[in-house]
Amino acid sequence: MQPGLVPQRPGPKRAHKLSEPVVDFLEAALAEDGSLNSTRLAQLLQDRLGLQAHPRSVERAQAPVPSSSDAPAHGRRPTGLAV
Predict the structure, then answer these.
(1) What pLDDT shows up at residue 83?
(2) What is this structure's pTM?
(3) Distance (Å, rounded) from C-alpha 45 to C-alpha 5?
(4) How many helices and strands (H and E) does the chain possess?
(5) What angle do CA 46, 27, 61 make, to 5 degrees?
(6) DSSP-based three-state secondary structure for 13
(7) For the chain: N or C, fewer Cβ within 10 A?
């Protein structure tokens, strides 16, 4: 099979802008002020670290990483669950 035909998702496989030290910074800021939302955290990143990040990226960086057994195959809902 040719490399271009391999069924894989294109693009980055992990966060590349919000590295572990950046996420640690976000967690520390949130621990200091629990009322901060993702928009304000993204603004803090810009102000203090010079990093531009979308608020949704901040939310994803803070979300717990699901284990591979929790994630449905190919992004589909598991069968047998009510929606």
Answers:
(1) 45
(2) 0.62
(3) 39
(4) 3, 0
(5) 75
(6) coil
(7) C
pLDDT exceeds cutoff 80 at 77: no
Among 46, 40, 78, which Cα is nearest to 59's?
40
58 vs 12: CA distance, rounded Å? 16
Residues 17-72: tens digit of each pLDDT: 788 899 999 999 999 999 999 999 999 999 999 999 999 999 988 877 666 665 55
Contact 17, 60 (CB under 8 A): no
**How many whole angstroms separate alpha carbon 77 and alpha carbon 83?**
9
Inter-residue contact 53 to 45 (CB < 8 Å)? yes
